Amino acid sequence: MENNTESDRQLALRLSAWLLLVGQILYVIVTLFHAGGDANNHPVIFQGYAASGTWTMVHVAQFACTAILLAGPLTLFFGLDVQGETAKWTGRFGAALTVVSLSLYAVVLAVDGVALKQAVNAWVNAPEAEKAARFATAEAVRWLEWGTRSYEAFALGLALVLLAVTVALAAKIPRPIAYVMALSGLAYWLQGWTAGSEGFSSTHIIGIEAAEVLNVIWAGWLLVASWRRH
To answer: CA separation (Å) from 204 to 102, 149, 187, 207, 227?
Structure first.
């Protein structure tokens, strides 16, 4: 029975790593098709959003990729050999916050992928006399997106930090993996702070790219470590 349990843990660790790697890589690829430009230059970027014919498809795909990605940390919790009460509770809270993060990301994409698209379309197509009011509405939706994305990033960052603590306390997992996970969590906190204070600035983009790179590093490391255990 003990051998079966250990085999199940190894399978969960490998599955966790694969889910996060696949989800993260697919997310980066899908986002290449997102309308680009200076996201804080609203008059220009809103015109690009309105002209995008793939907007809905891209955002649905982003949600699917994020669901796959976040299934990784959630599965990781079930693959850890947790011994102490502290590790058990940090893991439980980390897993719960991972689910919360996905829920918040669904709200982000509902605001960005649906509400903002409709608002910018209405602005572009409005009569000249109504354009100022329509633009103000679109900006209000954009600011709502800033807020929801900010707290989604804070929640995911905290989830990763808590799971990193659990990994550090768990047996048979290389501890440096936990350090890279924690750094990824800090990168999400940077995203959360910048999204709430300055929108989608260059600093916010740095936070996104740092988290993506760190996610690939710790997930790849976890995959190698799980195979070596086997």
So the answer is: 20, 11, 9, 5, 35
